[in-house]
Design goal:
Elements lengths: L1 H28 L6 H7 L4 H15 L15
Helix pairs in contact: 1-2
Length: 76
C-alpha cells in the first residue's frame, strides 16, 4: 500500500511539473495571440501567475497582433 501511495504521489508531481513546464515554454514561445493550449492552462492559474504570463506574452505579441491582447488576457 505504501509503495502504491508513493507511486501515485510521484505521478501527480510529474503531471504538475509537466504542465508547469509546458505553460512556461508556451509563455516564452507563443507565436500567436490565440494559442489554445496556453490559454487553457493560463486561465486556470492563480492571478499573480496569470498576470505575469499575460504581461510577458503581451510584450512579445502586441506588435505582431495589431495591439490586441492575447486571448484570455483581456479580463483585466
Amino acid at each position: 500500500m505504501a509503495s502504491f501511495l508513493k507511486f501515485l504521489i510521484a505521478i501527480i508531481v510529474l503531471a504538475v511539473v509537466a504542465v508547469g513546464g509546458l505553460w512556461g515554454y508556451k509563455t516564452y514561445s507563443i507565436a500567436s495571440a490565440n494559442d489554445e493550449m496556453w490559454v487553457a492552462i493560463n486561465s486556470r492559474l492563480p492571478a499573480p501567475l496569470r498576470t505575469w504570463s499575460c504581461d510577458t506574452v503581451k510584450e512579445r505579441i502586441k506588435p505582431k497582433a495589431g495591439g490586441k491582447a492575447p486571448a484570455g488576457c483581456d479580463w483585466k
